[in-house]
Amino acid sequence: MTETLHIIGGGMAGSEAAWQAAQAGVPVVIHEMRPQVGTFAHKTGHLAEMVCSNSFRSDDDEQNAVGLLHWEMRAAGGLIMEMADKHRLPAGGALAVDRDPFAEAVTDRLLSHPLIRVEAGEIDTLPSEGKWIIATGPLTSEGLGKAIQAETGTDALAFFDAIAPILYADSIDMGVAWLQSRYDKGETEEEQKAYLNCPMTRDQYEAFIDALLAAEKTEFHEGETAGYFDGCLPIEVMAERGRETLRHGPMKPVGLTNTHKPEEKAYAVVQLRRDNALGTLYNIVGFQTKMKYGAQTEVLRMIPGLENARFARLGGIHRNTFINSPTLLDDQMRLKSRPHIRFAGQITGVEGYVESAAMGLLAGRLAAAEILGTPVAPVPQQTAMGALIHHITGGAEAKTFQPMNVNFGLFPPLEGVRGGRRGRKDRYKGYTDRAKELWTAWLEGQPQEAAE
């Protein structure tokens, strides 16, 4: 019989790893501690639960690195992308997902696969034998975290991840807010009106910043440090970096025209994105926060159109842990000191749902190939997948290693293309064309997948 692959963690990475390995014909056991052992951020026991934003970000596979990663995962038969496409919500040029039906669909598909089973319960030690993938994500349990620290001989790195609030759509004042995607992006009217926009005058913005800076925040425990990932900064931290920071970040007013007052140019705009298919819930885009609950409701209701907002979930903050992958992992994502164990997902130092699932996809395929005795060629670094795995397994500077989203800065440069901002469009198209050709060739070189 084929050796079983064990996967600790049923998030984006663990779910995708399980699917890829099972599709290759390898039996898989997913070890998931939820719902027996909960976390600060998770609300259900579903696999692949989305706990922060509901966005997979840009779906542009010609001009955007994460859109290219979407393309590569779809080409590889990725379960996470298939379910995201089936449960997508209007979001302009982005891929937003109806989070609960998405997680339920991923869970149902995995549980119905004849080679996959799920065992509930926490694993708090490193396994000494067998084939394993640790994909426990940013909320790795304390016990397993300590076991990893003891094995690696170094402290796990940590940063704090803040969650954006979600509110009820019927509590938004549509006499103030209007529907529009930035620059009217999207091919359909629904896509072009995928966001709710709340405008602010200069005086309103300044008062908001004052209240934000003065609000009571979550305190850290002794010995903890607030090393935030720049892609998920709390709004208070951004405001502390300068009063205009938010207005040039999530509150930028560009590309938007107030349908109620088309002659007035807003000084700042708060955007909300639909959070479910029914359109009854909206999350505040880029508004991760560490404000205490009482302060949150008071400050957020200062936003025009949200004066009477009712919140389905307030924002929060939790600790994110990840390993120093460039030091600890080999180019097959195996722990150098225990090569029967692979790591995948956010715990490796990639950031974002899509990047986590992508590393799960690779880990699942690499583990399956090893079990089946069918080694695969290295993933071309010129692909989005290859750029990410190269970054975490040796391309990054270990001393300054921080979580990283996929971006074209991780790709080997193109020859004969114009540099700088003016040449960006042609350069990005060159990156994506090259990546698609190489990724397709890499997939075609793999052993034939088993039938489902």
TrEMBL record:
Q: Does the keyword Flavoprotein apply?
A: yes
| Chief location | cytoplasm
Domain annotation MnmG N-terminal: ranges: 5-374
Asked if Flavoprotein is a keyword of the record, the answer is yes
Q: Where does FAD bind?
A: G9, G10, G11, M12, A13, G14
Matching entries from InterPro entries are given as: FAD/NAD-bd_sf, MnmG-rel, MnmG_N, TrmFO
**Which GO molecular function entries does the Swiss-Prot or TrEMBL record give?**
flavin adenine dinucleotide binding; tRNA (uracil(54)-C5)-methyltransferase activity, 5,10-methylenetetrahydrofolate-dependent
Any one GO biological process? tRNA methylation
Question: Mind telling me which Pfam families this protein's record contains?
Answer: GIDA
Keywords, A to Z?
Cytoplasm, FAD, Flavoprotein, Methyltransferase, NAD, NADP, Transferase, tRNA processing
EC number of this enzyme: 2.1.1.74
Q: Which reaction does it catalyse?
A: uridine(54) in tRNA + (6R)-5,10-methylene-5,6,7,8-tetrahydrofolate + NADH + H(+) = 5-methyluridine(54) in tRNA + (6S)-5,6,7,8-tetrahydrofolate + NAD(+); uridine(54) in tRNA + (6R)-5,10-methylene-5,6,7,8-tetrahydrofolate + NADPH + H(+) = 5-methyluridine(54) in tRNA + (6S)-5,6,7,8-tetrahydrofolate + NADP(+)
Tell me where it resides: Cytoplasm
Cofactors per UniProt? FAD
- Mind telling me which GO cellular component terms the entry cites? cytosol
Fetch the NCBIfam families from UniProt.
Answer: gid_trmFO (TIGR00137), PRK05335.1 (NF003739)
Say what the protein does. Answer: Catalyzes the folate-dependent formation of 5-methyl-uridine at position 54 (M-5-U54) in all tRNAs.
Q: Which family does it belong to?
A: Belongs to the MnmG family. TrmFO subfamily.
PANTHER family found in the cross-reference section: GLUCOSE INHIBITED DIVISION PROTEIN A, METHYLENETETRAHYDROFOLATE--TRNA-(URACIL-5-)-METHYLTRANSFERASE TRMFO
Q: What is this protein identified as?
A: Methylenetetrahydrofolate--tRNA-(uracil-5-)-methyltransferase TrmFO
Source organism of the structure: Pseudooceanicola albus
